Amino acid sequence: MLIYPLTDSQKLLLDLIKQIGEEYIKPYALEWDEKEIYDEKPIKALAHADLFGIIIPEEYGGLGWGSFEMCLAVEYLSYYCAGVSTTYAASFLGCYPILLFGNKEQKAKYLPFIATGEKLCAFALTEPQAGSDAFAIKTTAKKEGDYYILNGMKQWITNGGIADIYIVIAMTDPAKGARGASAFIVEKDDPGFSIGKKEKKLGLRASVTTELFFDDCKIPRDRLLAKEGMGFIVALKTLDYARCGAGAQALGIAQAAMEVALKHATSRVQFGQPIYNFQAVSHTFAEMAMKIEASRALVYNVAKYIDSGAKDFSGASSMAKCLATDTAMWVTERAIQMMGGYGYMRDYPVQKYFRDAKCLQIYEGTNEIQKNVIARELLKYYK
Amino acid sequence: MEKIIVCIKGVPKPGTVKVDPETHTLKRESMELILNPNDRPALEMAIRLKEKYRAEITIISMGPPNIIPLLKQAYALGIDQMILLSDRAFAGADTLATSYVLARAIEKLSPFSIVLMGLKSIDGETAQVPSETAGLLGLPSLINIKELKKEDDKWIAIRENEYGEEEIEVESSLLASVSPQAFDYLRPPSLKRLIEVKEKEPLIWTASDIQAEPEKLGLKGSPTQVVDVFEKKLEMKGTILEGEPQELVEKFIEVLKEKEIIKI
Amino acid sequence: MIEKIKLEDLKKENILAFGEIYQGKLHPSSLEILTPLKEIAEKLDKSLILVCLADSLESIHDLESLKKSLADEVWFIFHSKLRDFKDDLYARVFIEIIKSTNPYGVFFPATLIGVSIAPRIAGVLNLGLCAHVNALEIENNQIIMARPTYGENIIAKLTSKTIPVMATISIGAFSPKTSEKTPVFKEVIFPENFSWESALKVRSFRSSKKKPSRLSTAKVVVAGGRGLKNKENFQKLFELAEILKAEVGATRPVCYEGWVEEERMIGVSGVTVKPKVYIGFGISGALQHTAGMENSEFIIGINTDKEAPLIKMANLAFITDAPKFLDLIIKRLKNLLKS
Predict the structure, then answer these.
(1) Contact C87/B169, CB-based, under 8 Å?
(2) CATH superfamily label, A122-230
(3) Do the Cβ atoms of A16 and B198 come within 8 Å?
(4) CB contact under 8 A, C258 and A30
(5) Residue B34 backbone phi and psi in degrees, to 5
């Protein structure tokens, strides 16, 4: 219900996303979900529309905008299909390490292709034994002359197989623990690098999630990002930046769910009147609206805070991610309930929003980990 | 550098057309104009040719100034130059008078490699303008092509008709209308170009700019005329049944049996 | 052996119709359009002439249908360069004939080929051309052509200020008729200096990969419009069609929305259907659509709007929610057929 003032360019961005959503996503979203298909057409459309370049500096062919615009794009794309917006947002997640830590040569080599959407990115940190406990990764990267040899595997990597550029966090010095990891740029055709099976998921089924295997994967040493030992710093800083994107996804899903349920509630007649007339129902929508607006305000304020040049925003971005994604889960569950039987049927989209929303509470750092971060940051401010 | 010309048209958005019940004319104020959807494959073809052969694309469109936003949309897809053909004298044109204006504009843009158009507009749906324009220009024409590429100095097109597909070779410039099914992916506008085109305006050509003979324009130049319009009166012919779906299903099945569509 | 006649000796000021011959086969719509044209010709006291272009008499498969057609004469133009359809050459041949014989009217079926050459001819000769006409009549010795216009239930009557009057005629708008009297076949000899060259060269031909639409000849048609609300509901028509051994049709708006491919569009510029039974779900019946199905034997309409044109023209109408009705019918039929 709140209208946020937008610049002309931001309005153009929104209109374009809506155009793309209506034409390339809306007619197919339920089918992709039902058949668990990844369709490259909406991604091609986003690429042609210059939308992969939102956060890439102009000198590399991007638009040179910031987190605010990225969140706008992600929120509205998620309104149409969170599976598609996951492919899109995950590519940003994978490109942040190069943006934040790449040297001039690395930026010049990769960013132009990322800006045009010709090459998608993926971010590979998680392993079977290392989820929330990211420090438990076991993939190794051994320096041999002018190369690094990577061995190990990554699990549940979004855009596995469809990305060309993979940011892989691997241990260069296991003895040093948290200070022993490094971040590398692995390309799809690198020898010894292979893609595992595509996972079958509860939601976000239009997006691709796979395992990655490194079998003596040999990469030139100029693929190292920043310095050896900085792997987890690269990872954590990247996640800090990308978190409000996950929050924005949650907003799109929640908004879509609320709207569909609301339309139903105002036309579904029971006991001689629309069910919206019953306070149990209308109050639920009132709560949905409040929670969504509150989450939206937080997500975009954090985005603006990041864009203003803030250096220390881990706590803020964790709050945005955690609040918005918890809101989306609550709203989508209530949306199903407000639609009754119709909410449960797969002919209607509300059940998809519910299944899509669940993943958002888990990936990019579970909401439990987010609360750890928030709690830790709290101590910095209020001792 | 090849020059490609694409002719586009603004049409009322389906569903927004309202007919004045008294005059039987279109209520133009209530209509939302969109780029003729069948023109998008033509634009897509032009842009893919531009990417492949280093060409320059000019779009022309005959219409009032309120179609300028549509020209800008086409610019955002990737075309280089926008030209609006606008003049009071053009109004009321049938396909011949329209083709005449387009032909004169295309001549003014000579030399060019090819002219592309959509197969038909979704309002008039005559599909006549491409061939008529080609006839006026003396250019070879191909209707409903799906593919176009260059081989040495020749254009090779795949044209689809009711019988199948033909591969056709053309040595000279060509005018072609593009099949709506030519591509299973049509690109959206580019955000950068949408921002860029805000500062740009199309060239506007009037009747005198294209040296058009006045008697060939607008209503005067349109041999086909509407002499009458009438509403098709519909009287109730049959039986009407009202009710909830589950109440009516049996009757429906009964009729299917009666007509021997199902045998139970 | 057929009579050879020089171009300049052909009968003048008559009604000409295009006999579309492609790879030796005559397109059925060329015979359909003779039905209204014969009446027009008789009222104007003129002859009806079918003009066919081909490489040779031997290459034509359907001489029998030509012999039974309503035409008074059939003029053949044979040349090896006419074997393949080339827009510019075919148009020039017609232009020569028009210039020589000064016909009163020249008509084409609205096939892709008809729509390729008719406008080209009209452009070169500066003639008016009416499109997708589905009715023709004579008023005050003038040919009046009718077609549905964009929008609601409005039919526009058109004339052309120029002679010859030209129009393309909607496919399926008329049924072909046969005549007891065989037309006179004539082979037209063109002047020596006529150039048979074309800027187009057909390198190869590949027969249609997709099966020709059976929609136009279907005995039972189930069609859907916007009243079905979304693509998922529309797709259920295919289930129903399978059970009833029917073909699926659609209105223009739903094709535009992407619910189904345009080949299934029934209407003025789509397919004309004449089934035994036509069942329209959630279709209001804009003229664009009804023009393509009004000759169905038995029309069933399902709509929530009692005033909808399709409901008014239906033999049997169900005023109820179309998507739910479709669902229930499918379930009921599946149950019945199981037992």
Answers:
(1) no
(2) Butyryl-CoA Dehydrogenase, subunit A, domain 2 (2.40.110.10)
(3) no
(4) no
(5) -130, 165
Query: Which one of B190, B195, B198 has the shortest CB-CB distance to A48?
Result: B190
DSSP states of B114-150? EEEEES--TTT----HHHHHHHHHT--EEEEEEEEEE
Which CATH number applies to A232-381: 2.60.40.10, 3.20.20.150, 1.20.140.10, 3.90.1640.30? Answer: 1.20.140.10
CATH for the stretch C215-338: 3.40.50.1220
Spatial contact of C34 and C67, defined as CB atoms under 8 Å apart: no
| Least Cα separation, residue A246 to chain C (angstroms) | 30
Q: Is A189 exposed, middle or buried (0-12, 13-18, 19+ CB in 10 A)?
A: exposed
Hey, are the CB atoms on B189 and A45 less than 8 Å from each other?
no
Question: What are the residue boundaries of the structural domains of chain A, listed by start?
Answer: 8-119, 122-230, 232-381
Residue A166 · residue A124 · CB < 8 Å: yes
**Residue ranges of B 173-212 with Cβ closer than 8 A to chain A:** 185, 187-192, 194-195, 198
Give me chain B's average pLDDT, please.
90
- Contact C97/C188 with Cβ under 8 angstroms? yes
Distance from CA of A47 to the nearest CA of C (A): 22
Which of C22, C89, C126 would best serve as a mutation to test chain B binding (most B beta carbons within 10 A)? C126
Question: Is C124–B230 a contact, with Cβ atoms under 8 angstroms apart?
Answer: no
Classify the phi-psi angles of A176: left when phi > 0, otherwise alpha if psi is within -120 to 50, otherwise beta. Answer: alpha
> B186 vs chain A: nearest CA distance in angstroms?
8
Helix, strand, coil percentages for chain A (3-state, nearest 5): 60, 15, 25
Asked if B162's CB is within 8 angstroms of C312's CB, the reply is no
Instruction: Give B-chain residues touching A13 at CB under 8 angstroms.
Output: 191
A52: nearest CA in chain B?
A: B191
Class in CATH terms, A8-119: mainly alpha
φ, ψ (nearest 5 deg) of residue C315: -75, -30
Which residue from C3, C2, C34 is spatially nearest to C177, judged by alpha carbons? C34
Interface size, chain A vs chain B, as Cβ–Cβ contacts under 8 Å: 34
> Which chain B residues are closer than 8 Å to C168 by Cβ?
128
Work out the minimum CA distance from B18 to partner chain C, whole angstroms: 7
| Domain C3-189 and domain C215-338 have a common topology | yes
Higher pLDDT, C132 or B114: B114
**For the domain bounded by C3-189, which CATH number is listed?**
3.40.50.620
Cβ neighbours around C67 below 10 Å, total: 15
Please give the distance of CA A200 from its chain centroid, rounded to a whole number.
Answer: 18
A111 vs C311: which has the higher pLDDT:
A111
In 10 A of CB C2, how many CB atoms? Answer: 11
Mean pLDDT of chain C: 91
pLDDT at residue B236 in the model? 65
Radius of gyration over every alpha carbon of chain A, rounded to an integer in angstroms:
21
pTM score, whole prediction: 0.87
What pLDDT score was predicted for residue B32?
85
Q: Are strands C25-26 and C21-22 parallel, antiparallel or unpaired?
A: antiparallel
